[in-house]
Write a structure and sequence with these properties.
A hairpin with a 5-residue loop joins strand 2 and strand 3. Helices cover 40% and strands 21% of the residues. Strands 5-6-1-4-7 form a 5-stranded mixed sheet, with helices on both faces. Strands 2-3 form a two-stranded antiparallel sheet. The chain contains 5 helices and 7 strands; from the N terminus they run αβαβββαβαβαβ. It starts with a helix and ends with a strand. The chain is of the alpha+beta class.
Length: 162
């Protein structure tokens, strides 16, 4: 078992115990949602890129989104992903290689390029990506969803975000 898998299992077990559900075995998902960030980003950039990337997965893949939440007082809340989102980091070359593998495997992929830090709205974001060929994108992050083993192969060389 890899360190990543051990870390995932430990997080799932800690989450179950914290919820008072220690007697319920942790759920093992057949799929994985992962974000890979370039390691040289500032903290605010990491958070911003992650939020943008996962929004793409949630809208394009409705099956990854769970049911709405409601607290004990009946206050409704928006639904969220039904499974954990794992965040990884790596150098520029690792991100580029992961992107190439994700595209080659046909996995649903969201991209965030360095150009998007200078745009202010969705239309400008799409135009900035459309202006550059796939091999020349200055990627600062990607998000992927797919079968666990396929996503693990895409993320080869990346490490869990610290």
């Amino acid at each position: 078992m890899s360190d990543e898998t051990d870390n995932e299992s430990n997080r799932s077990n800690q989450h179950s115990e914290a919820d008072g559900a220690a007697d319920v075995p942790p759920v093992r998902f057949d799929t994985k949602i992962a974000v890979l960030l370039r390691e040289d980003l500032e903290a605010w950039q990491r958070l911003n890129v992650t939020a943008f990337l996962v929004s793409g997965l949630g809208t394009a893949l409705p099956e990854v989104v769970g049911e709405p939440y409601r607290d004990a007082d009946g206050t409704p809340y928006l639904p969220m992903f039904r499974q954990p989102v794992l965040v990884f980091e790596g150098g520029k070359e690792v991100v580029a290689a992961a992107h190439e593998r994700a595209v080659r495997r046909g996995l649903p992929t969201a991209v965030f390029t360095s150009d998007l830090f200078g745009t202010g709205h969705d239309r400008a974001n799409r135009a900035a990506v459309a202006a550059v060929g796939r091999g020349q994108l200055d990627l600062v992050g990607i998000a992927v969803h797919g079968p666990r083993n396929s996503v693990d192969k895409v993320l080869k060389g990346a490490r869990m975000h610290r």
